[in-house]
């Protein structure tokens, strides 16, 4: 299915007890776009990603992938297989394995266990894909290094590489530069910009505004589970309401 926006969210609401974490939210992200979602703590950013990936079920609303695939009717693994890739804030690579083996694992057949996979030889084409990904994430020459000894930034790039090998149509990144040095943040901005593709949408939650300014085509400001403002970074920064609830703090 290739028609329609990459991600279509309409009338979405979820309550936790009396708290409306997401409140009648509508959002549309096009293919080829890099979207940033910003907003104060508790605005509902992570909850939105949890709903899109099937981790949290909303009370009402619609979430469609590529204009037609009903994500709310699917399980978490089905959503991942349909092309929604998510990177959590903390890196979660296999620390005891080499960088190259981490990438190889990302190419494993869905459902096959890691142990079965370790004894399985990848084909030449898959080995070549893993090698090309090393280059793409700026880690050529580091394939034999144990992932556990990588810097925080390197672990994040490796995990992004692992996600990319699954060819996501929607890539969700939760605070990718949290805890990074300035130079790591710069490299991450370049990497994210290089991931833009005509058939892929990238959604980034981030509090680092200079990073957001560099990467985002459109910025959505969430506040109390709703969209407060949406538009270019310049428009968002100039908005008095955004300064009130978030940027001016
Ligand atoms: N499983 C849950 N049970 C109860 N309350 C929850 C649950 N998940 C989130 N919340 C609440 O919902 C609100 C939205 O949380 P969410 O984590 O989505 O915000 P956020 O915008 O991602 O914030 P942050 O920038 O701090 O990560 C918060 O008040 C949070 O405490």
UniProtKB/TrEMBL annotation:
Which organism encodes this protein?
Azospirillum oleiclasticum
Gene coding for it: urtD
Q: Would I find Transmembrane among this entry's keywords?
A: no
A GO term for molecular function: ATP binding
Does Transport show up as a keyword for this record? yes
Q: Which PANTHER family match?
A: CONSERVED COMPONENT OF ABC TRANSPORTER FOR NATURAL AMINO ACIDS-RELATED, HIGH-AFFINITY BRANCHED-CHAIN AMINO ACID TRANSPORT ATP-BINDING PROTEIN
**Gene3D superfamilies with a match to the protein in the record:** P-loop containing nucleotide triphosphate hydrolases
Protein name as it appears in the record: Urea ABC transporter ATP-binding protein UrtD
Membrane spanning residue stretches: none
The signal peptide, as residue positions, is none
Q: Which InterPro entries match?
A: AAA+_ATPase, ABC_AA/LPS_Transport, ABC_transporter-like_ATP-bd, ABC_transptr_urea_ATP-bd_UrtD, P-loop_NTPase
ABC transporter domain segment(s): 7-249
Arranged from A to Z, the UniProt key words for this protein are: ATP-binding, Nucleotide-binding, Transport
What Pfam families would the database entry show? ABC_tran
Q: Which SUPFAM superfamilies match?
A: P-loop containing nucleoside triphosphate hydrolases
